[in-house]
Amino acid sequence: MNLKRVKLLLLPILLTVSLFFLLDKNFLPGISSKLSPNKNFELLGRVIRLIKSDYVEEPNPAKTMEGAFKGLVDSLDVLSSYLDKDGTAKYNQQKKTNLKDMGVVLYKRFGLFPQVIGIVENSPAEKAGIKIGDYFSTLDNQSTLFMSLVETNLYLKGEEENPIKLKILRDTQTQEISVKRALLFENPISYSSEKGTAGILKIHHLYPPCVSEIKKKVLPQVKKQKGPLILDLRNCYEGDTEEALKLINLFLKEQKIGYFEKKGKSREFLSCPEDAELKNLPLAIWTNQATMGSAEVVAAVLKDFKKAKTVGLVTLGLAVKQELFPLDDGSALLLTSGIFCLNSGEKLWGQGVRPEEKVEIEDQSQSSYLKKTLSLFSSQ
Predict the structure, then answer these.
(1) Among 173, 100, 162, which Cα is nearest to 131's?
(2) N- to C-terminal Cα distance for the chain?
(3) Residue 41 sits in which domain range?
(4) Phi, psi angle pair for 116, to nearest 5°
(5) CA distance linking residue 83 with residue 69, whole number of Å
(6) For 257-267, what is each residue's pLDDT tens digit?
(7) Same domain for 160 and 300
(8) Among residues 14, 88, 157, 160, which is most buried (max CB within 10 A)?
């Protein structure tokens, strides 16, 4: 590697370190710089002066600073992210518009390739032959190594059906395919009857009008049922906390169901204060590795209050509160500001929800889940 290339790589690293010293007291719990704020600013100024006077070529300030911000924020945790102007607009849009997608659930850490951990049934991804365990090394010839998880997910979404060119790593093989986007769900939920149960309620995502659709279309059908209702949260990886609380509140009325632990150990308690319309209905919850975020909150709380029996795989433990901080140029910082804890103090972060009845990872079929569920309730 030549000297010029080395210096190009060192430049954003130097700026990232400087910005770290500047921002650590505001954004990074448990980490504190020994330097005073004034010393931090002096350090940043010195780094910038050295770059300006001694760097091998005239740097592009905007590009360099964006790289520094990105490296700093994206490396905090798997959910925090620096979003450019387009990414910020799409992030805000996804909650209001059902964007087209290819139908994969990904997990990645900064500096590693995203891995497929879930595939939506009958999606373009499934039809194209993408498998759980595959890695995406490029998207439209752009490396995914230094994308955040949020950026990668947003890249897969769009208003048009135009395809995305993927380079996939599978075992020792590499292959290139193109996968179209499609509208995956016209409705946030689907419901089907199933013998021996009150039916299977599949939650595709936990954005409004999820719970209002359940109240309108599902409650009249299940209230008179005697068997367990199955709440299928497999591959439910998007949603917000408010909708999750409304879903919990269908089965549980409680003033404190858990809390977000924020910086300084402060607690933001969450509540489900309305009458629970399905409080007496037996409930089973299905999970897999692609059950994430607000769906994990639903599963964990209902299990903790003994309102549901859980079946499936251990989840990843990504139940957090996030805040979006817009910047003057249209970009934004998406930062994790709290982690979800049960009333006992047990944190979901990195631990996940552990089902009472496990399903073999090699057999994730619906029939396998159903068999385990019926066996669990018949043994009562």
Answers:
(1) 173
(2) 66
(3) 3-75
(4) -75, 120
(5) 10
(6) 999 999 999 99
(7) no
(8) 88
